[in-house]
UniProtKB/TrEMBL annotation:
Localization terms from the record: Cytoplasm
Claim: Translocase is one of the keywords in the record: no
InterPro entries: Iojap/RsfS/C7orf30, NT_sf
Subunit-structure text: Interacts with ribosomal protein uL14 (rplN).
Protein name: Ribosomal silencing factor RsfS
Organism the protein comes from: Lactobacillus colini
Lineage of the species this protein comes from: Bacteria, Bacillati, Bacillota, Bacilli, Lactobacillales
């Protein structure tokens, strides 16, 4: 069984491999009862948005984790992957600006991410 930090790392790696932009992660342990970590990233296009989501799904399957939910459709500008302890939000730039989800997590600790450029 994956620990929440391992799932976070795996998700961040999948996002980075598909060139998610402005990726932020928040440690919500002790703040939110819903999940330990929240992640938000931006995709340059709808196609990239789905490539990022598919990369995350592939990595969680490889790890042996099978329980997750995805919200959004092929035409969505925002996909949410709920993996239990980790929730990833993948947006187009316009949708991310519109929804401004980071404000909801301001009580959490913003994590330093070591991403490849």
């Amino acid at each position: 069984m994956l620990e929440s930090k391992e799932l976070l790392d795996l998700t961040i790696k999948a996002i980075d491999e598909r060139h998610g932009e402005d990726t932020e992660a928040y440690d919500m342990r002790g703040v939110s009862i819903l999940s330990d970590y929240y992640i938000v990233t931006t995709a340059g296009s709808n196609r990239q948005l789905h490539a990022i989501a598919n990369s995350i799904i592939d990595k969680i399957h490889e790890s042996g984790k099978e329980d997750y939910r995805i919200e959004g459709s092929k035409d969505s500008n925002w996909l949410l992957l709920d993996m239990g302890d980790v929730v990833a939000n993948i947006f187009t730039e316009e949708a991310r600006e519109f929804y401004g989800l980071e404000k909801l997590w301001s009580n959490g600790k913003r994590l330093e991410l070591n991403l490849e450029d």
